[in-house]
Structure formats: structure tokens, C-alpha cells
Design goal:
homodimer, 317 residues, alpha+beta, oxygen-dependent coproporphyrinogen oxidase, seven-stranded antiparallel beta sheet, two-stranded antiparallel ribbon, coproporphyrinogen oxidase activity (chains A, B), Coprogen_oxidase_CS (chains A, B), heme biosynthesis (chains A, B), EC 1.3.3.3 (chains A, B)
């Protein structure tokens, strides 16, 4: 059943959607852990909005799981306006070179304990640039979900991709193939020539279909989260593992940190935004990570198998 | 005794200096560990030079210690030229908009195991921009050393700063105060409003005194490394520590990672440079790091004492 109500403005529907999905996702994840999420509400200075972080740390299954929503607005920093103009040349600033924005979104990163259980990230967001009279000047949606295993399980990757393809197909059969490649390109650790994991979907600056359809698409993708991920965790969370496998997971988490801090646009935008909430932005970091000098897995090993896939992305469905 | 020979070109002297100091520093550090450094030579593609990494991992005292020299040259990437022009407006590119560089330097990061023993970083480097005929168009030196404790020991900070002041004073009494503030400003984790540690010295684009004097200054600072650091490690490496103290160290290492990946110019330059050696650039990373959601030390605790100093840098000498 949809939580969307087309009689309301888009931003209100999106806010209702992310609030509902945050609770639903947390509840779903809690079915696989004995520990519960803790809520933590926060506000941005100067009436700039706020958000709610739900965090589960040191669980039985999940080492660190964060599900965050934010609804923020206010003047956009000048540096951000300049960057944004690269993709939105039509943004009109006022006589002081300023512009006001509204943004809301849900973001989530789950790092399980077991090295055979994959990390999952998702983020669905809606962005508006406003005129001085408060009317919407331009808007777009962004989003995506991706899977980062330390060990490759082909069936897991296929399942994850299949469910995201199914979520997108009703909105255009061209979307999944486009968003799949976008994801491989976006989550690329360029200096390593590796993708972060086995990918998923990613899109940004999206306003090709009407806003109500975009909302429905966001909801459809958000609905894919639990069925695409929970079965993988259920299958992997109690698998036996060795110290060496745990160490490999820690090395892969180091790569996760490298991607987030060096490349991720959302993280970089957040760290540069005055009064942003650092703890919610860096909630995506794993609890622990390792860097070993010059570590290279043995040829033919399970570790090398994963690396191969990150260097040559595969079409899973 | 100086290893400099003023009858040789500056670049050859600098190369001889960093080669000699790399060995000396490694030998000095080995006196406090049962494990030895391992050498690892590497070359950059297309005759672009190379380097030698010395790494000690999983020692008794040092968790991860890296001492790296590099001597690299070749065409400068266009993005790097643009950035460099901010500080060196007089750089003349050739008709293709290209320019050749030569750079050599020694960089070092030492992460000890004991949370009471501080991390130390240093980097001394020399940079030349060349004309098409191979003559030097412009040159500068850069360098610095800084101390990153997890627990504040005032005497350690004073000792470290005092020896670096002593190393600089013969070259101008104004240098230490200037480089001390530069260091506090440079090693700043802006999004946390924290410095990385208790600072030290930092300078860049330095050519205010003649090149031979700059070489002597680099040597003098490099000579301060062992006496400024070894006594601190000798004092702290066998101190008893709790699990909580180890965790705090891991959280501080997370901050170290944040600084290196988000702000450090050398790391960013390296990651963007084609054919650069990633493992040598990221040798500076700690072996392990932790991110806990919303961790804030108790008021009045030893942990809070350190944070206070990182938020309000102190004049140690």
C-alpha cells in the first residue's frame, strides 16, 4: 500500500515517504538482531531544518547500522551553487547571488559483523531550488542502492540486482540498465581502479518523468530494500568465518572509507556545508577498518575473486 | 656531520639527504622494536622516477611505521598545473600548455601500538618546475613534522616543539612561530573544528632564503626527528593501558584518516596523479581505525582534555 497522497505537495509526500520507510526498514532489520535501533533527533542551526538518525551499534548481527532521514532548507553556500550549476545551468540566483534550497532524503548504511554478509547502502532524496517568493524554480530526484560484499556470492548479487530491476521496470525498461551502469561508474574508487562492491542502481538530477511518477519510483525502490537484503543477511549472518576472512572484510572496509571520504558527493557536500551534522554524514563509516601496506590477495583465492569483479563489473541480470 | 655537498646541484643534494635520513630514521626506530623495516623499491611508469618504501608492520612497539622516499619527474597533469598556479603565478607553460616537474621528498608516519605513545608524521620535500631545455624555472621547499597523541602529555608536546624550534632558529628566529601556526592551520579537520594533534611545524612553497640554506634547514629539521620522538616512545611504549584507552586511540585514528583523505594536499595530489604509487601514498593510514556514532568523551576526562587542546591550539614553547 502506498503512503503517497497525490493531493499534497511533492515535498510533503516525499517527507512522509521517508519517515514511513525509515521506521519500516529499522523494524525489518531488527528482526535479524537482538539489539534495537536508537533514535536521535537533531536540528540544523538557524531554522535550517533537521532530521532523525536511527542507529544500531554492536548488535549480534550488525556491527553498525544507520538509517537517517533529513529535511533541510535554507540558503545554499556559494561553493555549492557553483557546483550545482554544472548540472543545472538554468538555476537563477537573486541579486545577491543567492538561492534557497529544500532537500529531504533517507540514507542508510548497514555493516554486518560476519564477513560473508554484505554491506548495503541506499539513499533516496528530493531536491528543490526555490524562487524568492517560495515557489519551486527547479527540482530533481536522486537515489540508489548498492551492495558491497567482502566475499562474492553470485546468487546474492543476482538477487539484489533483480529486485531493483523489478522495482524500476514499471517506470521505464531503460531505467535499470542506465542506473546500473551509473552505479558502477559512481561507486568507483578511481585511484584503485575498483568499484566499491557489486553495484546496484544509482541516479541523480532526475526529472525526466513527472514528479508524482518520480515519487512512486522512489517508493518502489525503497520497497525493494528489505526483500533485496534481508534474505542475504539471514543466509550469511551465522556462517562460520576465519580470522583471515575477518581481516579481509576490514581491508574492504578501508576501501569503503576511501570511497566515502575521497569521492562520495553527498559526503563531500555535507562536510563542506556549514552547520551540517557531521555525525549523521559520517554514520556511513564502518565501525572498524584496516589498512595493510601492499596487501594483495593470492591468485585464485576467494579474495582475488571479489577483486576481479570490482575491476570488471558484471551484468548480473 | 652534514651529508650536503654544495658543489652538487640542489636536487642531487636533496636526494642524497633523503636517502641518508631514511636509513638513519629507520635504524633509530628499530632500536625500540624487535621487528625490522622491510624495503620495497618501486618505479613510476614511463621513466617517471620512483622511490623506496620502508615499512615495519605489526612490531612490538609500532603497529605501522612507514618511511618513504620518492624521486619523481615528468609532465605535470593539467589539473595540478592549475592548482599550482594559485601559489606560483609565474609558472610558464609551453605552447601545449604543459610543464615538466621534478620532485623529491621523504615522508614518514609512525603509528605506535600503545595509546599513550603518540603518532608522528614528517615530510620534507623539494620541488622544481623546469623549462623545456631542462633548466630550472622555479623551485621551492616544503616540509614539516607534527605529533598526534591520543592522550595529552604536556611535557611530550613541549619537548617535540622545543627541538623543532631549535632546528629552525639558526635559519631565522621568525620561522618557528610562523611554521607553528601554519601547522595548526594546515592539520585542521575543518568539519570537526579540531586540529589533528598537538601540531609541530609546517611550511610550503618556501624559497625565501637561498636554496643551499633551505637544504641546510631541511637537514636540520630531519636531524630533529629521532631526538624529538624516540624519547617519547621509550617513555610510553610499555605503559599499561585499558581497553577503553585503546578504543579512544582508534577513534583518534579515524580522525587521522579523515584528515588524510579529505584535506591533506599531498594525499589528494597523489591520488589524482596518474601512475602514482597508491600504496606509498596511503602508507600514512593507520593499520586500524574506528568510527563510533556520536562519541563524545566525558567532561573532565583525559579524553576530553586532548579534545580541548585540538580545539584551542596551545603555544608549547
Amino acid at each position: 500500500m502506498s503512503v503517497l497522497n497525490p493531493s499534497l505537495p511533492v515535498r510533503e509526500q516525499m517527507e512522509a515517504l521517508i519517515r514511513a520507510k525509515q521506521l519500516e526498514i529499522c523494524k525489518g532489520l531488527e528482526t535479524l538482531d537482538t539489539k534495537k535501533f536508537k533514535a536521535d533527533e537533531w536540528t540544523r542551526g538557524n531554522n535550517g531544518g533537521g532530521g532523525k538518525s536511527m542507529v544500531l551499534q554492536d548488535g549480534e548481527t550488525f556491527e553498525k547500522a544507520g538509517v537517517n532521514i533529513s529535511v533541510v532548507h535554507g540558503p545554499l553556500p556559494h561553493a555549492a551553487i557553483e557546483k550545482m550549476k554544472n548540472d543545472h545551468k538554468d538555476i537563477k540566483v537573486d541579486q545577491n547571488g543567492e538561492v534557497t534550497f529544500f532537500a529531504c532524503g533517507l540514507s542508510m548504511v548497514i555493516h554486518p559483523i560476519n564477513p560473508h554478509a554484505p554491506t548495503m547502502h541506499l539513499n533516496y532524496r528530493y531536491f528543490e531550488i526555490l524562487n524568492n517568493d517560495g515557489s519551486v524554480q527547479t527540482w530533481w530526484f536522486g537515489g540508489g542502492a548498492d551492495l558491497t560484499p567482502s566475499y562474492l556470492y553470485i546468487d546474492d548479487a543476482k538477487h539484489f540486482h533483480k529486485l531493483h530491476k523489478d522495482a524500476l521496470d514499471p517506470f521505464g525498461l531503460e531505467l535499470y540498465p542506465e542506473f546500473k551502469i551509473w552505479c558502477d561508474n559512481y561507486f568507483k574508487i578511481t585511484h584503485r581502479n575498483e568499484t566499491r562492491g557489486v553495484g546496484g542502481i544509482f541516479y541523480d538530477d532526475f526529472n525526466k518523468i513527472d514528479a508524482q511518477k518520480c515519487l512512486e519510483m522512489s517508493e518502489s525502490c525503497l520497497n525493494a530494500m528489505l526483500p533485496s537484503y534481508l534474505p542475504l543477511i539471514a543466509k550469511r549472518k551465522d556462517m562460520p568465518f576465519t580470522e583471515k576472512e575477518k581481516e579481509w572484510q576490514q581491508i574492504r572496509r578501508g576501501r569503503y572509507v576511501e570511497f566515502n571520504l575521497v569521492y562520495d558527493r553527498g559526503t563531500k557536500f555535507g562536510l563542506q556545508t556549514p552547520n551540517s551534522r557531521i555525525e549523521s554524514i559520517l554514520m556511513s563509516m564502518p565501525k572498524t577498518a584496516t589498512w595493510l601496506y601492499n596487501h594483495e590477495p593470492e591468485e585464485g583465492s576467494r579474495e582475488a575473486e571479489l577483486l576481479k569483479v570490482t575491476r570488471n563489473p558484471i551484468n548480473w541480470v
